[in-house]
## 1
Amino acid sequence: MKYFTDIKVELEEITVLVICEALKSPTIGEFTREGFIEGWKALGADTIEKQRALVPHLRKNIQTDQSLFKRVYRNTFLIARNTGQKAVALDTAIDYWNLFFRNGSGLNWDTASTPWLDWYVEYVQERWKKTVNRDMWNMTLEFVLKSMEDETLSWWEEAGAWPGVLDEFVHFVNEKREKAGKMEVE
């Protein structure tokens, strides 16, 4: 915690996860000596002053560099799991989805007619209630990206290779849209 404070990073911001990915952290905020030295060296920041100066760049890049965003998102699954677990607790996953998909952090998973993140959180809290495995975690990101490109979900196919939770979420979205009198997936 002190280290992040020293380099001017708030513990509740996505930049913590960017740094954890770059330094190959085994868990949130835990660094190996080799990962710490080699990670900062690769970023050209081998002193605390250089690390502090790099932080604004890391904050900006997570919002503009989609490949970095994907790497950090996927790595977060690995470091968010409790020791010895293969999945992430649902409450923990929701916290991270809020961090990744709210405006100001990473992507803003809202479109003109659909509050996607709010609906997804509502759905998983009401109807899923299980842990989040790696496939669900990774495919949630793919779903986010596709739904932001085309909120009508014209690309959606029930027989597609999506996890069942996302198939069910599409039905949930259709129910919400029908009640609200909005567009429905064709």
Note: The two ends are 49 Å apart (CA to CA).
## 2
Amino acid sequence: MASAQLRVAVVCSSNQNRSMEAHYLLSQKGFAVRSFGTGSHVRLLGPAPDKPNVYDYSTTYDAIYRDLRRKDPELYARNGVLRMLQRNRAIKLRPEQFASCQEPFDLILTCEERVYDQVVLELTAREQETMQLVHVVNVNIQDNYREAHLGAFLLCELCQCVSLLDDVDSDLAELLLEFEEHSGQPFLHTVCFY
């Protein structure tokens, strides 16, 4: 399966850091990719851990960027949020919520176990219409800039290997075991249907 034929979704909690870093890299490598969040709202670092900035998914990356520049440009430049938002607005207009997407994918990659559980729950709650199989794979990626960057390379390498498989449905489990050994990280994997 060629990279352009493999339909990939990358999902994190707010469609800001981890999923967008992977979205950027995968699109640069020619993959048909979309990215999503699973949270009820988009949450970004605020002035204190208990004071996040909260936005609806309908808020554009540009509007979030302008809002944070207005609130405290030094803080959000120093913690990297403005740089992250600049990247995001160059990729797509706004964050997207996974539950709102009805598009089928061949491979859904999640960036933390809680998000994996939410994606699997969402897919199994839907009425299965086409019985098209989708592989859902999780690798835990810490939600910081450095780990998101490294995680994006791991996810990209995984997608490149998946695109070379003759039979994804039969061979993916073995490939994931190889990736676990190579990366030292556990991968969760399940199959759902559309």
Note: Residues 165 and 171 are 7 Å apart (CA to CA).
## 3
Amino acid sequence: MICVFQKLAAECQSAGYSGTLIPYKCDLSNEEEILSMFSAIKTLHKGVDVCINNAGLAHDEPLLSGKTEGWRNMIDVNVLALSICTREAYKSMKERNVDDGHIININSMGGHRMVPSADEHFYCATKYAVTALTEGIRQELREANTHIRATCISPGIVETEFAFRHHNSDPEKAAAVYESMKCLKAEDIASAVTFVLSAPPHVQIGDVQMRPVEQVS
């Protein structure tokens, strides 16, 4: 995976984009690795001004028959890692008196309604948690009397490797998800992130819900 991001970093540089993409390998199910990553960011780049919690995964583990290991992995990545990264990002901002930072959680439409499919139910529960956590973060930031903002971006079906990992034993089923409609693209989510970041400092965007036009649920 790190090679993919190294290639992407080279493409960004050759395209003349401003800024620099710096890949960093981190297992988000391991708190020690997350803390090590934030320590490296502090050493090399002073700290974090904007934290975008983008990692998320789903396993085909229904509520009545699923394996605990799969449930635990979804909680570790979708809920705990997001919370740890948020905490560490806020610490970084506070240490440097950053008062205009931003925490953006890439949520899901699954965090707002339950998908009528057993293999999605536990995943949706973790995304409902993200919805609640983002509002909790917003409230705690207000209590801290800071102007740091917290936002959810909640996409429907986005054409990425997500479905192929979710249905890793049935690639045809995964492919059918993306072939059934004109899906959102990663660029659409990036545009939403840019929109949120470009809002005036006094504007708090709580949640951006977005779906493909052809998506029913």
Note: The chain has a mean pLDDT of 94.
